[in-house]
Amino acid sequence: MWIGRLTLSYNGMKLRIDWVLGTMWAVVAIWLPTGCSFLSYDLQVFPYEMPGAANAINNTDSAAGEVREDSEQAKQAMVWSISSPSQFRRFNTREGFTAINDEGDAVTYGWTHRHQYPPLLLTGNDLIILSQLGHGIAIANDINAKFVVGNVKLADESRQAFTYEWRTGILTRIPVRAGSSYSTANAINAKNEVVGVMDGNAFFYSAGETHVLGPGRLYDINDNGIAVGVSYSYGVNEIFHHPVWINCYEKNAGFNLIPLAWPLRLGGEALAINNKGTVVLTAYADKPGTPFLYAIPSVYDLRTPNVPAMNLNKLIRANTDWIVLDARDINNKGQIAGYVRNRPRPPF
């Protein structure tokens, strides 16, 4: 495995990518978008022993994610220092951390594509099993300085979004529409405002009120009330996913489509946004000559709204050893968490 750093310059500005984990899996990047002419790069590589992924990054030099400990894809949760990536903490949790706050507290989701695991809260050196606290917590998606958010499983098997103040033990269920069978809180900002999905519709929750925003789901919200996610439209035998942003503070606000620079079949999803308005997203494009799609990890800046999202792999030299597979989170410094793999090489 490898840990390293890659620096790209654009018209005097720099794109620095710290390869924090993985011959197969993980990237943390600093992205400062201006212009499009490649000037230089610098790569430093460090040894590491396991593949993994960086799922989240905070504003105080820490990232969180996972490493895979065996061929069965069992995972260990990981927190490491961005400035000193060889300094890390690893926990035998069976799944990775999915969110981390600026104090270094982190949560695991509580579910993989194969298994249901108990969601966990890391605070200091303590791991707290959230599902054993008597509230029915099933999923933990995000954490800020005060609250964990996700969903609880109710007696009738329905799910309801919640905020949980773990220092006091107070859990509050987010109000839902009558007849709702599923809601989950995906993200919370520093103002304790929450976004998520309720029965296929995006919602925004603030000051005790829930606002349903339309078909889709929201994955993140910054401290300025700008949220990102995906909206849905329906065609013949398919659903089109539009990566979007929305100003939750505007009354009757609608979704704003994020422009993409390549032909797409099924759109994409905006996954995270920082306070400066930089968005990381995944777009889906046709794989030539096949019926399949491939993911394009991308970045978009709300300060230049007419400039389409940029493919992260277009920001890296073609002869680099790495391919960015996914971009999952971004902090206020512009650092991006995600994962990479080795670029295939010809046999001769």
Sheet bearing the most strands, described?
7 strands, antiparallel
Strands, count: 29
Write down the overall geometry: globular
Bin the helical content.
under 10%
- The chain-level structural class is mainly beta
Task: Write down the overall mean pLDDT.
Answer: 80
What distance lies between the first and last C-alpha atoms, to the nearest angstrom? 23 Å
Q: What's the arrangement of strands in the largest beta sheet?
A: 17-18-19-20-21-22-23
What is the overall number of helices?
0
Quick overview:
The chain has strands at residues 2-10, 13-19, 27-31, 38-47, 52-57, 62-68, 75-81, 88-94, 97-100, 106-108, 120-123, 126-129, 137-143, 147-153, 159-165, 170-173, 183-188, 194-198, 201-206, 209-221, 226-235, 238-247, 256-257, 268-273, 278-286, 293-301, 310-311, 322-330, 335-342. With 348 residues, it is mainly β.
